[in-house]
Amino acid sequence: MINSQLFKSYIRHRLTAKTRHGIHSPFVYNLVDKVIYDFKPRTDYKQIEQLRKSLLSDEREITITDLGAGSHVNNNKKKLVRQLAKNALKPKKLAQLIYRISNDNKPKNIIELGTCLGLTTAYLAKAMPGANIISIEGCPQTAEIARENLDKLKIGNVRLLTGNFDAIFPGIIDETDSLDFVFVDGNHRKDATLNYFNWCLSKVNSDTVLIFDDIYWSKGMEEAWEEIKANPQVSLTVDLFWIGLVYFRKGHAKEHFRIKF
Fold first, then answer.
1. What long-range pairs does 199-206 form, CB within 8 A, spacing at least 24?
2. How far, in Å, CA of 175 to CA of 186, rounded?
3. Residue 34 — φ and ψ, nearest 5°?
4. Using an 8 Å Cβ cutoff, are 90 and 55 in contact?
5. pTM > 0.70
6. What is the C-alpha to C-alpha distance for residues 122 and 126, in angstroms, rounded to an integer?
7. For residues 48 and 175, what is the distance between their CA atoms, to the nearest angstrom?
8. Residue pLDDT, tens place only, 178-206
């Protein structure tokens, strides 16, 4: 079933978004030219995409614990790993973009909300093998598969935590001196998204990038994205429709960009 809200938002975005041309911000021009539109193949991509292929034929059945509907909701349902790989993993093009953004930003620490089967986690870890990465997954059995996948790729710089974002994320922020890179890819509700954003604000710095997934998934998510853009601490946002990038660059006039991707 087509999400009519999403379709209308996509058409509106395509009609108003820019490519690298007409961008007068040197920072954003460089981001678009050297990072967003860098589609060259890389060895890291090949390794992870080979793993994706194997997951798309994985017949194991696991129990999905879904905490995304709210902190007191726990819906358990059976699903094949291959179904989860097909429907829930970030597409190759988007996962590889997140790799490049991380690689360009050079964060010392990375936090991911929503590990799923660990492929985007793997992209982040391969992009920045020297970074300390924490990834939080709400579903224990999904997290087990993710850990398997990270082990297969010989990734050792990821601390994988299982549980409710609302219970775990504030403590992670408290123990982190400064947030460098946060990817929010779970619990796509307005209130939850704004909570995660607001919790981060006390620890952002001039080089911090926050990435929010599915910013047009629903009316509530669109509203959350607009509130994030309007926050006085935010200096720059880049709207790629599928994800939104948020920056806090000191001395940068407040600007918002819609970029075709």
1. 199/169, 199/170, 199/173, 200/173, 201/231, 201/233, 202/173, 203/173, 203/176, 203/177, 203/178, 203/179, 204/178, 204/179, 204/233, 204/248, 205/178, 205/179, 205/180, 205/248, 206/248, 206/249, 206/250
2. 22
3. -95, -20
4. no
5. yes
6. 6
7. 30
8. 999 999 998 899 999 999 999 999 999 99
